[in-house]
Design brief:
The complex is a heterodimer of chains A (531) and B (335). By secondary structure, chain A is α+β, with helices and mostly antiparallel strands. Chain A contains 18 helices and 19 strands. Chain A is globular. Chain B is globular. The chains are: A alpha+beta (531), B mainly alpha (335).
């Protein structure tokens, strides 16, 4: 009898082991907890990785590994001649996930599209304030409220968006996380049951992975969605093991407790490269770090002074010292991963002698100025204080005295906006939707003076180009306009463009098919795990 | 005894009010406009700024904010997290069992090792054993938790592969959280190996969190024992011809424990601080890690409520210690 029991137990263990081998489970050591599973109220990449990427789809989607868009839940769209009407033709036969409490009775259709946007747009919509303190951050910060004039259901599989003004980046907005398509049927069921906040906790979408469970601050589980319109996933299960400390993530990866991790410590990169069981992917991030002069104040209103200061700074030294080599020196205000990046532009050369001569020629002597250093660490600038010190030393070499100023972060952000700000400001930007407009208009347009345009730079030629690009829907034409705008930018030098940081993704060599996203999100559709 | 208890309970009221004021003020004296901080590089339009200000209630007079905060607490409303939009108290209750479980193991580890070590060191006073033990205790006491935790991970998990790196259980196991205590839930699930996995995950965090209390308890036990061992009644007990283990175990230890119990009570407060670091290193989903995340997200309602709730726990533990103290030592409850 005892032998029998032992045998049974042994068989059970074997069966378990075999089962574990058959089910392909990828464990991702994510860097933090998602704030919720409805992506629209949030802005953090950590939340999007856990919600919009695995669970949902959008009408258009970003092509893997690029900032271009391609059809998603809409098979195609037409733009009217005046650029005001976008008609989306929806994909048919798209299934929603089901759960213990919800079984969809119909496929995805126009009602879901209307629900997904109207809840964010209309303040009298029953879902506009479905949990306490909710606000639609991205919908508002992309000015969707003012941009939209109407959303109409033409028929079950056709939706027409009418805009108040022509705006080409609208399509890129539709691929953003806040534009994820929710199930109107599920929402109606939750509303009837009086459990509306479950929309944010037990999500139902159309995406490649179904939500299984979230253990707060510990783990999120997903399983592959068999009826996914984009095809069945190679993985069976996907687990996010939430691990906040980068050194611990690294240990977990090396111990085989997870397969992929984001955001390694720069100091660990060498040991990752040396580990034969690991591979390291890298890509420039969708960001730019810059030093913005106040172009309205003398002598910085003189382009030659700005140029001279740009030429005085050794960017490579900054890349080496501040980014520990994990960045590329920036030439343009947009990173190279964004379409329309102008590769023909040559950077201002590092030449202190010439810089000194240019300053003298401009009649500027004994210049003393302020350099603002941010008090926080950001991907585009891990240590602004150190960066400011390097710039200070470079300036000293051409006879310019720089005083480094810093203040508390909230104060820094608001004070640096003021038109009469004294000094040049270190700051940066991480893109939202991969559209060049999201950098060039937001940071350098005339409308943005007094807000995110911290150079207070309003150049008619530049502004005309980006405004025209904004209302042109033809991409080739837009590309040409943005390329030209970058030429004007470089000639006028409102910023010292400093660096684009490089993003690293260490993972097990067993992982195949992972594609890095220039926008910095992490998605696991199409990823496989070798035995 | 009743009067003693009532006295202690009464003292809680001013302490509680003091803590609410502290937690409330702490968050408000932090530099920076919380609305601007939430908006970040993106900035915020004046209308939206006003809206957010009203939503968080920061536009109201300070005493009014305090009053609504205090009356909320008495109705069990500790506020809503700015980031997760969930009631703070719900997140707290979900995460607290994880902290409690870890603290329980850590304090048990500290007591079970610390008291015997202290007793032996006192009995063999001056021996090489005593000196090694007290030297080690000093090192343990001075070790930064973050450093110790990482070192343990790198050595035992990374190099030797004996223990898992972080988390509460292997990702292979999946069962609903019935009690919130992973060890109990693992047993309840009936899944093969789940309990062992949960226990293995507890080893390093327990040692990390328990090291400082262990050192403190060992040192306190030693000095209390030394004092008691010199007392007359111990000499009497020895003179009566009682076996040494009876003299030490029954007569000396019971009296030496009185200050040790106080020390253990105080260590609970220390452990709450230690849990913040330990949980962050070991990705332990408890309230310590929750507080750290809230601070980095500038989620002020969570920080404010977390401070208050942790303070309440420390207060409750101190009350229990006071009562225990009265039970062990009759002299206390009569004064």
């Amino acid at each position: 009898m005892k032998l029998m029991k032992t045998l049974l137990a042994a068989t059970a263990v074997l069966a378990l082991a075999a089962g574990a081998a058959q089910a392909k489970t990828l464990v991702y050591c994510s860097e933090g907890s998602p704030e919720g599973f409805d992506p629209a109220p949030y802005t953090s990449g950590t939340t999007f990785d856990a919600s919009s990427r695995p669970i949902y789809n959008r009408l258009v989607q970003f092509t893997k590994g690029s900032s271009d868009t391609e059809p998603g839940l809409a098979e195609s769209y037409d733009v009217s001649e005046d650029g005001l009407e976008y008609t989306f033709h929806l994909r048919q036969g798209v299934k929603f996930h089901s759960s213990d409490t919800f079984t969809p009775t119909r496929d995805f259709n126009a009602d879901d599209v209307l629900f997904s946007f109207e809840r964010q747009w209309k303040s009298d919509h029953p879902w506009n304030a479905y949990t306490a303190g909710i606000s639609w951050e991205y919908f508002n910060s992309m000015s969707m409220g003012e941009l939209l004039s109407s959303i109409e259901k033409v028929d079950d599989y056709t939706v027409k968006f009418t805009l108040t003004r022509p705006e080409a980046p609208f399509i890129a907005n539709m691929a953003m996380d806040f534009a994820s398509i929710m199930s109107a049927e599920y929402a109606a069921q939750l509303e009837a049951a009086g459990t509306m906040d479950l929309l944010n906790q037990a999500p139902i979408g159309t995406g490649p992975f179904e939500f299984v469970n979230y253990q707060q601050d510990a783990a999120i589980r997903y399983s592959s969605f068999d009826d996914y319109w984009g095809g069945v996933q190679p993985l069976d299960d996907l687990v996010f093991a939430i691990t906040t400390d980068p050194a611990v993530r690294m240990q977990k990866l090396q111990a085989g407790e997870c397969h992929v991790m984001p955001y390694p410590n720069p100091a660990d990169l060498d040991s990752i490269r040396a580990d034969s069981s690991l591979q390291l992917m890298e890509q420039e991030g969708l960001n730019v770090g810059y030093l913005a002069y106040n172009t309205t104040m003398a002598p910085f209103d003189n382009v030659n002074v700005r140029k001279a200061l740009n030429m005085a700074v050794d960017k490579q030294a900054i890349v080496d010292a501040v980014f520990e080599g994990n960045a590329t020196a920036a030439i343009n205000p947009i990173p190279p991963t964004i379409w329309s990046y102008n590769t023909s532009i040559v950077d201002d050369e590092y030449n202190p002698e010439a810089a000194k001569a240019m300053l003298a020629e401009a009649g500027v002597e004994n210049l003393s100025m302020k350099v603002w250093a941010m008090p926080v660490s950001r991907p585009y600038n891990p240590d602004a204080r150190r960066m400011a010190e390097l710039i200070q030393a470079d300036y000293a070499a051409i006879g310019v005295t720089a005083e480094i100023v810093s203040m508390e972060w909230g104060e820094y952000l608001s004070q640096s906006l003021l038109p009469d700000r004294d000094g040049a400001v270190l700051l940066g930007w991480t893109g939202d939707n991969g559209d060049p407009d999201n950098f060039l208009a937001v940071l350098l347009g005339c409308d943005a003076v007094g807000s995110a345009n911290r150079a207070q730079w309003c150049n008619e030629e530049f502004d005309a180009l980006i405004q025209k690009a904004k209302i042109t829907s033809d991409k080739a034409e837009r590309t040409a306009l943005y390329e030209e705008a970058q030429v004007v930018f470089k000639r006028e030098a409102p910023w010292l463009t400093i660096a684009h940081s490089v993003v690293f993704m260490p993972m097990s060599t067993k992982v195949t098919g992972y594609v890095m996203d220039p926008k910095g999100t992490h998605a696991f559709d199409g990823v496989d795990l070798a035995e | 005894m009743i009067r003693f208890l009532l006295n202690r309970l009464f003292l809680i009221v001013p302490t509680f009010i003091g803590i609410t004021i502290l937690a409330f003020a702490f968050v408000r004296v932090l530099p920076g406009d919380p609305v601007l901080l939430i908006a970040g590089e993106r900035g915020v339009s004046p209308e939206r700024y006003q809206m957010l200000l009203e939503q968080f209630g920061y536009n109201r007079p300070i005493w009014e904010q305090y009053w609504s905060y205090l009356s909320g607490i008495f109705q069990g409303d500790f506020g809503t997290s700015v980031s997760t939009k969930r009631p703070v108290i719900r997140d707290f209750l979900t995460l607290f069992p994880a902290t409690l479980e870890l603290s329980f193991f850590a304090i048990s580890f500290a007591i079970l090792l610390g008291i015997p070590a202290g007793v032996v060191a006192a009995v063999k006073r001056g021996s090489w054993y005593d000196q090694t033990l007290m030297g080690t205790a000093l090192v343990g006491y001075s070790m930064p938790i973050f450093w110790l935790g990482l070192l343990l991970i790198i050595f035992f998990s990374g190099m030797l592969g004996w223990t898992p790196v972080s988390g509460r259980i292997d990702m292979l196991y999946y069962f609903p959280a019935t009690t919130g205590f992973m060890t109990i839930d693992a047993l309840l699930s009936g899944q093969d190996g789940a309990f062992v996995s949960a226990m293995r995950h507890l080893i390093l965090p327990t040692v990390t969190l328990g090291t400082i209390p262990l050192a403190v308890i060992a040192r306190q036990t030693r000095s209390a024992m030394l004092e008691v061992l010199g007392d007359d009644y111990v000499r009497t007990a020895r003179a009566k011809g009682l076996a040494p283990h009876q003299v030490i175990g029954v007569h000396a230890l019971r009296n030496a424990l009185i200050p040790v119990v106080t020390t253990i009570g105080l260590q609970v407060g220390v452990m709450m601080a230690g849990a913040i670091l330990t949980e962050t290193i070991f990705s332990w989903p408890g309230i310590g890690k929750w507080m750290i995340d809230a601070i980095s997200r500038r989620d002020y309602p969570v920080v404010q409520a977390g401070l208050l709730l942790i303070a309440l726990i420390v207060m409750a533990v101190n009350l229990i210690v006071d009562v225990l103290y009265g039970l062990i030592n009759p002299r206390i409850r009569h004064t």
